[in-house]
């Protein structure tokens, strides 16, 4: 190797990447867009397909692992960009600031199938500042005996916060587990209670 | 993740073979890992002005083909192969305008902004690379910037391994003669 190129300054590819993402979207090649968002509960990974928001992941879920999974399950055409995600990020910011109680971002539920998907769709009816039990959600989803399956659906919810699985608690009133960690669930419930009683 | 026994993987990336079931990393990983190197290669082979467009075209083509890329292949070699095709297209377009080749011009040294010497040096270096014949600058870029072995370089530019080695050596010698910044 020659030393001729040893002192070249680092190449800044940032503007090129932004341009590439825009061109990819225009040509229908942006199968999965993602960005991160700093939140009071740590860094959140947001990912979207052209159909809508497809994943929200907490740092404890390992963002690299989540991205690898999206590449396998949806498409390897995964690009970091705010395109199609910045508005969602703004809404989540507002939610954490207590200024937003519902989300009106399009969602893509392709990562949830069958009964799990049905359960997730019913989550939207559990309003801000309220809670339901796993048994209650099972009944609402039309399968009152499928309490364990409801628990699994919540545990594998690809869109926590936007699909509020944190509002599903145990019948004894204790919060139960959460995809973002039990402390995150308690924090979200506390946030919503404090806003609701204002 | 089992697959039927296959003969040894081909030495060159097979871009258009239907992909196996093995997972591919997110495309963004390729941009992070190889984007800067590909940009340098584009600067060297396509010239500083065309480099950005060549980079865009390279990564857009790569993105389009990525789901079909054989998972075992070497992504950097694959990207450089695509960049090379873009460079050839661009080179052919440029050749329609006759290029003065008889007398090589002196490389403008420019007046570096104080504290920005490296940037100026880099601009001078790219200008010097641009004066090399296409084959030499391609050989220099693919071996010295992208790190491809000479056998792969030869396959890309259509010559034998020793010829690729010679092209790169001639290119580096010419750069040393014309570009004084790196030696200062």
Count of discrete domains of chain A: 2
Low-confidence stretches of chain A: none
**CATH class designation of the largest domain in chain A:** Alpha Beta
Percent helix of chain B, as a range, is 55-70%
Order of helices and strands of chain A: HEEEHEHHEHHEH
Mean pLDDT of chain A: 94
Main β-sheet of chain A, in a few words?
A: 4 strands, mixed
Number of strands of chain A: 6
Gyration radius of chain A, in Å: 19 Å
How many domain modules of chain B?
1
Number of strands of chain B: 0
Q: Which outline of chain B best applies?
A: globular
From the coordinates shown, what is the CATH architecture of the largest domain in chain A? 2-Layer Sandwich
Helix content of chain A: 25-40%
Helix count from the secondary structure assignment of chain A: 7
Which segments of chain B are poorly predicted (pLDDT under 50) over 5 or more consecutive residues?
A: 1-20
Shape of chain A: elongated
Strand percentage of chain A, roughly?
A: 15-25%
**What class, by secondary structure content of chain A?**
alpha/beta
Query: Which fold name is given in CATH as the topology of the largest domain in chain A?
Result: Double Stranded RNA Binding Domain
Q: How does this structure look, described?
A:
The complex is a heterodimer of chains A (198) and B (184). With 198 residues, chain A is α/β, with parallel strands linked by helices. Chain A contains seven helices and six strands; from the N terminus they run αβββαβααβααβα. In chain A, a hairpin with a 2-residue loop joins β2 and β3 (52-58). In chain A, α4 packs across α6. Chain A is elongated. Chain A starts with 13 loop residues before the first helix and ends with a helix. Chain B has helices at residues 27-46, 51-65, 75-95, 117-130, 134-145, 150-157, 161-178. By secondary structure, chain B is mostly helical. At the A-B interface, α1, α2 and β4 of A face α1, α2, α4 and α7 of B.
